[in-house]
Amino acid sequence: MTDFTFWDIAKQLLLALRWTVGLSLIAFAGGSVLGLALLVLRLARVPGAQRLVAAHVQIFQGTPLLMQLFLTYFGLAMVGIDTSPLLAACVCLILYSSAYLCEIWRGCVEAVPKGQWEASASLAMGFTEQLRHVILPQALRMGIAPTAGFSVQIIKATALTSVIGFIEITKAGQLIANATFEPFLIYGCVAALYFALCFPLSLWSQHLERRLRPAR
Fold this sequence. Notes:
By secondary structure, this protein is an all-alpha fold. Helices cover 81% and strands 0% of the residues. The protein has a single domain (12-210), classed as MetI-like fold (Orthogonal Bundle).
């Protein structure tokens, strides 16, 4: 059996960390774009759109992410799409993230006083102008903390992609632990890396929440 030094283990985990960070960024960016589009559809009162958006949210919030990953990975292959663990993980996490971000931001928009809608409408603003110039800037302040908090959830959710063969730090840790027979050390290092990613984000969201909190 090949002997692994601590630096060998650290090197392999840090290489896998790049995939965790990359997948998290893709999921958050893609989920943000799709979530914003779903939010606008829901607010625009397009016939039938509200039910479709609500169904999307209920499906991805009401089913386990692990099951969603399996269905995406094997489902894409069944419809003839040449899939890979990376593609399936990206598609699934984007859809999953969009459902939660849409609801987070919808709550923030609904928290804006209705008088703001009425005041902007009295200025002959259209729906798009109301959102862009009046509603979304106010909702943004309220949405910073929960959005940053959900980004932490996305990072932790990437660990589940190991079940479809995507090699991020959890999967890398599993492979290294099987080779070294040191599961406590390896998974302890994996946990430390997750903490190093998530804890600064939590602190940053708290800082932004205090900074953007309206003065009383």
